[in-house]
Amino acid sequence: MVDVADETVIDSGRRFAAALAGKRPAELAELLAPDVDFRGLTPGRDWQASSPEQVIAILFDHWFEPTDVLDELVAVDTSTVEDRQHVSYRLRGHDADGPFVVEQQAYFMTDDDQPGRPITWMRVLCSGFRRPTA
Known about the structure:
Layout: H1 7-21, H2 25-31, E1 32-42, E2 45-49, H3 52-63, E3 69-81, E4 84-95, E5 98-110, E6 119-126
Parallel strand pairs: 1-6
Antiparallel strand pairs: 1-2, 3-4, 4-5, 5-6
Helix pairs in contact: 1-2, 2-3
């Protein structure tokens, strides 16, 4: 469900989810402001970054390692919470331990004064890798 008057801003959230799912660091770097304020929370740790390079290192060196295969972006949902945007996404993938599903919720803000509206502030909460129980 999209509940927003400005689809351009929401599109940043959808593009972030798609670039993450496709493991496309260059595309993610274009979506993030040079001085992005990023915080993330995973089941075992909290993360901080203040540049696109640091965010990308967190995403692809720690959260999704090179051996993790992201097979599918299963779902993306976007909405607005007053002056903040929200995007949730679910990914299906596999690694040496087998298949997994991971879901993340992100709240973000963009800089309306810059072309392309880079993400300037983002908070992400991650479910962690959830393995099939059967």
